[in-house]
Amino acid sequence: MEYLNNKKSIPFEIQAFTSPEVLCDYAREHPIEILLISGKAMNDMVKQLDVGMLIILSEGVHNPGLDHYPSVYKYQSSDGMLREIMSYYGADKTPHSQTQVLKRQTRVIGVYSPIGRTQKTSFALTLGQILAKSQAVLYLNLENFSGFDQLLEQRFEHTLSDLLYFIRQENMNLSYKMASMTESLQNLDFIPPALSPMDIQCTTYEEWTSLLEMIIKETRYEIVILDLGDGVQNLFQILEACDQIYVPIRNDVISAAKITQFEYLLNVWGHTHLMERIRKLKLPFHAASHSGKAYFENLVWSELGDYVREVLRKEDSC
Whole-model pTM? Predict the structure, then answer.
């Protein structure tokens, strides 16, 4: 309960009740959108409550009379339970009214480089985890090949490909569907990246824009980090949607030539003003000493993490 209350991105206020009677007293004065309740606590009074959705918190076996209610398994991680709840809620055919989101204006941060092997993704994940200590941050990987399944040693049930499918179908309750597939690295939320490069390459600028608009208007995220690759259609237009753009660079001759070409095209294609938002960074080399989830979590305390904190400190002092 404490973990969920501290999770900044959850689109609901969470209340806990010590008994069905206390719950019913509360429900007389306050609307309840989702009620998660143990099967043992269910009684006739609770069944008569006017709630948006009632979900049984199951210990594996419950009264057959409750089978018509959706259920989630009690003994699992809080994140897993939250994803299941949001999956039920987002799948509801009825459009749910969006609670007004009170937050600072959402900042979109782009991380992109025309150069390879710059530690771009390691930087983006380090930046995201550090910012997520004090703000609600969502990381989106828009590369052709992210390698997340292999890096995290995990096969994800839902990915960005599924979310893009819902965008194309103009499905209702998109923000809740997104919440049902959101994973976390420490405090940083992320949507598991698309497995196939085609899912990135075939997504139109309008579809990316719809996704960003939904996140900005309907979620509690204060920062969205876009880890951009060259497979994104209308890349420069996507960069236009970014309030700030970090461009990791290298010092060799070929890398410098690629940066020069990138800046030339910004000018030729009418995006010269983006140079004001771009900050080029020469990142310290990060030698991986861990694998799996530990690799991502240890980024924060690496030399790269120290570098990112210094970058943010200097920006705050400006």
Answer: 0.87
